[in-house]
Amino acid sequence: MQSQESSSAQLRQTLCKLNNHRFPNLKDPSCKKRASVALIIRVRPTFPNQACFDAEKCSPKAGTDDSRLESFFDQEWVQRGDPEVLFIKRAAREGDRWTSHIAFPGGRRDPEDEDDVATSVRETKEEIGLDLNAEHCLQVGNLSERVVTTWLGKTPLVP
Description:
The protein is an alpha+beta fold. It has helices spanning 4-20, 55-58, 65-73, 76-79, 116-128, and strands at residues 35-37, 41-44, 82-85, 88-89, 102-103, 106-108, 148-149, 156-158. The model has no long low-confidence stretch (mean pLDDT 85).
């Protein structure tokens, strides 16, 4: 079993890499629909450590994404905490191809969404009530985009 410190160190390394090596956006003119999801990771403190948000070091006003991420992982409670990933279970609806699936929060891009990040922020707020624009949330990077096609393989549906 991995130690908490090594889990935290691996998570730190992965998130720093994601933050510094952004994936390019797919530009597909034939793709009319877009969707975005949010991969949400929290660090749950372990006893006797207490979670403490340090606004001077970690808030959006505190500096660059790199420095905020480094400051977050420099805290002892984070180094000793347990990383957790948030999944949701989609609603069960007859005729819905995604019914009852386990997924990341997210969904279809609306015309008023500025970009894919705005889509995932809005959808996460709608689905689970978590505001990813809150001061204590660190937006780290993006995962590679994918074009999903119909079973015929001709019509792009969602990148």
